[in-house]
Design goal:
two-stranded antiparallel sheet; mainly alpha
């Protein structure tokens, strides 16, 4: 993939992250659908990547549901499943895995570290911008997020690698 496409891939993700977090459920749905359509048209160029999006969303739903049900993430309405906007974040995140983050597929240790280090920052920022909160003490909650992502991020990369292998068959 060209450097320009990787750059566009990252810029689309970051813009979509802001739209999903700040915009609420309807904006998040529209944003995620738009990103996926643009991604499939200009970056992935392969409709089979939709399977990867679905797999990552299922994994993300499980991860965030676990964090919510365990009390690490506290929703204002006491619902025990992730809000739509949070699920949409997993959709747009999945578009990075076989493109701008592809280099991490062969770097498992780095992927574990990046998942553990970067996800807590993303969750913390997202929580500060929404009506979601972390259980006290927040440092412990962010530690649980780090552990969850130290496992989930490499799993996402593995799913992406398997999808890419299927694309090349």
């Amino acid at each position: 993939m060209s450097k320009a496409k990787n750059f566009v891939n990252v810029v689309m993700f970051n813009g979509a992250w802001l739209c999903c977090v700040l915009g609420g459920n309807q904006i998040a749905i529209a944003t995620a659908l738009t990103v996926v359509m643009l991604h499939l048209r200009f970056i992935a160029d392969d409709w089979r990547e939709v399977l990867l999006v679905i797999q990552v969303v299922v994994l993300g739903f499980f991860v965030d549901s676990m964090l919510i049900r365990s009390g690490v993430i506290v929703l204002s309405n006491d619902v025990l499943i992730p809000p739509v906007w949070l699920i949409c974040l997993w959709i747009v995140f999945s578009t990075l895995l076989n493109h701008s983050l592809r280099w991490l597929q062969s770097q498992l240790f780095i992927a574990v570290l990046l998942g553990a280090l970067m996800a807590p920052f993303s969750y913390y920022a997202g929580i500060r911008l929404t009506n979601v909160s972390l259980a006290e003490p927040e440092a412990w909650s962010l530690g649980f997020v780090a552990v969850a992502w130290a496992v989930a991020f490499p799993m996402c990369l593995w799913l992406a690698q398997r999808a890419a292998e299927r694309f090349n068959e």
